[in-house]
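Weekly sync, protein design subgroup
Attendees: M.S., D.O., the rotation student, P.L. (late)

Item 1: inverse folding check
M.S. brought a backbone from last month's batch and wanted to see whether the design step gives back something sensible before we order anything. D.O. pointed out we never logged the input encoding, so this time it goes straight into the notes. Structure tokens as presented (67 positions):
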């Protein structure tokens, strides 16, 4: 809120520094890290095993589709 209300560069910098101190002092968890699914984008000319191993996708076991 203070960043939006700042009218001078000094006020804006001070507000950003306060926000920075607040964010640095906290501990955060990114929920995506605990998703039960593994999302992956890939080209349609690549093939991968039909069954995903319990340790997740491993790119070295993928192969290129025959032409």
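Designed sequence read out in the meeting:
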């Amino acid at each position: 809120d203070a960043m939006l209300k700042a009218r001078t560069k000094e006020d804006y910098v001070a507000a950003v520094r306060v926000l920075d101190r607040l964010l640095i002092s906290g501990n955060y968890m990114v929920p995506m890290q605990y998703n039960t699914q593994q999302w992956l984008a890939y080209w349609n000319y690549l093939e991968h095993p039909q069954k995903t191993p319990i340790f997740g996708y491993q790119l070295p076991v993928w192969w290129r589709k025959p032409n």
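Discussion: The first strand starts at residue 46 and ends at 47. Helices lie at 2-5, 9-25.
Action: P.L. to compare against the previous round before Friday.
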